[in-house]
Amino acid sequence: MIDTQRPLDALGKSINTNVAVHLKDGNMVKGKLKAYDLHLNVALENAKFESDEKEYQLIVIRGDNVLFISL
């Protein structure tokens, strides 16, 4: 379990680990978290959409499309 005081601290401690980003449109993207900011814009490396077999070397997801991120 990640011990944090603030919600974004969990993301900071999860850099270079695999995460699942759940989007507002119902899609989910899994990949290695490379970067994020206060708006929840996230950059994922070796990312795959749940509904797609193609792997993307790098994908950037705009924060207003993010519903939640699971670690």
Determine the CATH topology. SH3 type barrels
Order of helices and strands: HEEEEE
Helical stretch tally:
1
**Total count of domains:** 1
Helix content: under 10%
Tell me about the largest β-sheet.
Answer: 5 strands, antiparallel
Number of strands: 5
- Give the overall shape, derived from the CA principal axes: globular
Supply the CATH class. Answer: Mainly Beta
Q: Which strand order spans the largest sheet, edge to edge or round the barrel?
A: 4-3-2-1-5
Q: Give the low-confidence spans.
A: none
Strand fraction: over 45%
- Give me the secondary-structure category: mainly beta
Give the averaged pLDDT, no decimals. Answer: 92
Q: Span from first to last CA?
A: 10 Å
Tell me the Rg in angstroms: 12 Å
CATH architecture: Roll
Give the structure's gist in a few sentences.
By secondary structure, this protein is mainly β. The protein has one helix spanning 7-12; strands at residues 18-23, 28-36, 42-49, 55-61, 66-70. The chain has one domain (7-70): SH3 type barrels, CATH 2.30.30.
Q: Can you tell me about this structure?
A:
The protein is mainly β. Helices cover 8% and strands 49% of the residues. The chain has one domain: SH3 type barrels. It has one helix spanning 7-12, and strands spanning 18-23, 28-36, 42-49, 55-61, 66-70. Strands 4-3-2-1-5 form a 5-stranded antiparallel β-sheet, with no helix packed on it. A hairpin with a 4-residue loop joins strand 1 (18-23) and strand 2. The longest helix has 6 residues, at 7-12. The chain is globular. It starts with 6 loop residues before the first helix and ends with a strand. The mean pLDDT is 92.
